Amino acid sequence: MLVLTLTAASCSRHAFEEQKPAVGDTAPGISAADLSGRMLRLADFRGKVVLLNFWASWCPPCREEMPGFQKIYLAYEDKGFVVITVAVNEVTLAEVKALGILFPVLIATDKVKRDYGDMSFPPVSFLVGRDGRIIKKVKKFYPEQELREDVEQALRG
Predict the structure, then answer these.
(1) Span 14-20, average pLDDT
(2) For residues 104 and 86, is the Cβ–Cβ distance under 8 A?
(3) Cα separation of 154 and 94, whole Å?
(4) How far apart are CA 30 and CA 78, in angstroms?
(5) Which of 11, 7, 151, 32 is nearest to 82 (CA)?
(6) Fewest CB within 10 angstroms: 66, 96, 133, 134, which?
(7) Residue 55, SS3?
(8) Residue 15: is its pLDDT beyond 70?
(9) Phi and psi for 103 in degrees, rounded to 5?
């Protein structure tokens, strides 16, 4: 059983790394509504470093990484960093407020899910450079310190 689990984990990780969009690709366009119904587009943030995080309210690691995202967002927002989270399930404003999220929370459309691949097991994050290209993909909890280092490097250019 352990061998099967390790093999499945290895195969799914390999598949994720090769799955489109890949590091170096231009991030697929996103046009989706936030919780207030306001439409946002990823293209609106061109020229900034963007953490695009796919999450679900039922996912404990997703909720656990939000405070770190918030700290880094507040620390680097004035330097050109933004966080956009995309909920892959229905979330309420109350859930978002309870997490203390100050950055945009979009609701994933079917097109966004198709363009960014399998979101069955969030969290999944894409760090997008100022030029709109994917710098890094993370299919797991994105530790605060690792994100901080990645953002600092991306902002340096």
Answers:
(1) 70
(2) no
(3) 33
(4) 23
(5) 151
(6) 133
(7) strand
(8) no
(9) -95, 170
Lookup result for tokens 């979101």: 119
Q: How many CA atoms lie within 13 A of 6 on its CB side?
A: 3
> Could you tell me which residues come within 8 angstroms of residue 109 by beta carbon, excluding any fewer than 6 positions away?
32
- How far, in Å, CA of 77 to CA of 69, rounded? 11
- How far apart are alpha carbons 101 and 85 in whole angstroms? 9
Token pair listed for 152 = 């600092």
Band of pLDDT at residue 20, cut at 50, 70 and 90: confident
pLDDT category at 155 given cuts 50, 70, 90 is very high
For 33-53, the DSSP string reads: EBTTS-EEEGGGGTTSEEEEE
Strands 81-87 and 49-55, by their bridges, are parallel
Q: What is the 8-class DSSP label of residue 58?
A: T
